Amino acid sequence: MGSASYSPYSLWQKIEMPVLPELDRHVTVDVCVIGGGIAGLMTAYELLRSGRKVAVLERHRLGMGDTGLTSAHLSNILDEGFKKIIQLHGLDGARLAYESHAAAIDEIERIQNEEGIDCEFKRVDGYLFQGTEGTPKELKDELDACRDLGVDGVESVRTLPLKSFDPGGALFFPRQAQFHSLKFLRGLVGAIFRMGGEIYTETTATEIGGGSAAFVRTHRGFTVSCSSVVMATGVPFQGGLSIHTKEAAYRSYVIVLEIEKGVMPDILLWDTETPYHFVRKFSDLETGREYLIAGGEDHKTGQDALPLQHFENLQNWVVDRLGLTGTLVNQWSGQITEPVDGLAYLGRHPNLGPNVYSISGDSGHGLTHATIGALLLTDLINGHKNEWESLYDPSRTSWMGLGGFLAENSNLVAQYADWVSLGDVASESEIPPGEGAVMRRGLRKVAVYRDQAGDLHRLSAVCPHLGGLVRWNSAEKTWDCPCHGSRFDSTGDVLNGPAIEGLGKEDVEEEIQREPRDESLNTLELRRTD
Question: Peptide bond before 275: cis, by omega within 30 degrees of 0?
Fold first, then answer.
């Protein structure tokens, strides 16, 4: 099993999640939900409320996935921009997207009220402002699109409540929200148990079967027999390429600065840059201290040579653009999955039968997309109509999104050129303690990590999902696959899917050194795109 540590968010906040047992027997339920993040637990909660018997399987412990790494913005104003969403999905589709995200925030608010979950939920105003290289027309076009959709309360404003920063204009969106995602998750667990739901951790789902005898098989050979299966795993780990080719994994960076009390109001901020930046304030109710949470700097997973630089870039942006300073208290990155047409894939999986469902493609709005998915899938499983079904259908295709589809898949093909590249270093002796490198050994590629004691850990560099070659992430000490976003800790255990198996151990006794260069590789090496 994996040995991932608690997320930086939970460490910083000192949030204790319940320790739950792994599955140690065969069970039978109505629905098996795979994934114990907000998507999985929200789906379990909604299904239990509708009278279904539910079991949740989580590969690690609760709170260790990307739900605990989010900055916890809750917004019905999509990052893609409604001008583009209208182009991709039409006016009616864009209106449904806006309304469904608004409904998701309302549902989170309802749950925390009715279940008595103290998760610091708060309605706050949001502001979209122009990027440094943007134009006023960007905001004007977005304002027009919002008004065409009937977005509540949107208006153009000249200034922000933040005195240190004059954006020269912004769009105002009332009644957005923020909360503490892990405190909410912890409260959901209690509600699920109260309604008779089952949650098993340290339990990896390895096989799914649909049809009349649906099942989920786990790494220890136990089976959950069920009528329906939900993959709430970020990306599907089974079912071929039908969804993988329409989305791509990105790393998104977050910093936390302790700031002077009162300098930052309770608002959400985000800009029009690509990649964009986002900001909110967090107040520690126990200590009275105030913090700025800033994020952005997104790039494709496994496709950046200097990941640590993004944290410095964020801090410089806060100082230079917002005029705010503070003491850095934490930093981390999280995984997001970008669909080619801006909206998540929520519904029946295209290849696994009518009773196997998937929640994937969060597009930076994982909290609201997850909630939409929970509400939608509950209706589908219970045989009820839902007006969001076709908009989020995982089987959908979009001619307007064809350009994004082709770009993502041409980039994917380029990553397999790593197979003909040389090693990252000439010799294992060049790898310092706490770092890793990919090296060639004959026709094989080996991922070599040197731990702090100086011992070497040699792993297969081949991602077990679809054969991409992993790359070392020096910021987080992980092996990241640039093809579909699978991630592994320094010793090879799975952190992010779609891979369900870790990196295999390599039986190498002698030190690996770079072999003499094969000049026939020159042409192929030049084609590599990072």
Answer: yes
User: Torsions phi, psi of 329, nearest 5?
Assistant: -115, -20
**Number of CB atoms found within 10 A of residue 528's CB:** 13
> In angstroms, rounded to a whole number, what is the distance separating the alpha carbons of residues 437 and 512?
11
Q: Which residue has the tokens 């939920």?
A: 121
**E strand or H helix that includes residue 359:** strand 356-360
Tokens standing for residue 373: 């998915």
Helices (H), 416-447: none
Amino acid at 152: D
Task: Count Cβ atoms within 10 A of the Cβ of residue 223 and give its class: 0-12 exposed, 13-18 middle, 19 or more buried.
Answer: middle
pTM (global) more than 0.85: yes
H-type alpha helices, 386-432 = 389-392, 402-415
Structural domains of the chain ordered from first start: 18-69+182-245+342-408 (3.50.50.60), 121-177+247-339 (3.30.9.10), 416-525 (2.102.10.10)
Measured in residues, the chain has a length of: 530
Q: What is the pLDDT of residues 405-450, one digit of tens each?
A: 455 445 544 444 454 455 667 787 888 898 888 888 777 888 888 9
Say whether 473 sits in a helix, a strand or coil: strand
Contact residues for 73 (Cβ-Cβ < 8 A; gap 6+): 176, 178, 268, 270, 278, 280, 367
Lookup result for tokens 């913090």? 291
Structure tokens at 360: 């994937």
CB 91 within 8 A of CB 148: yes
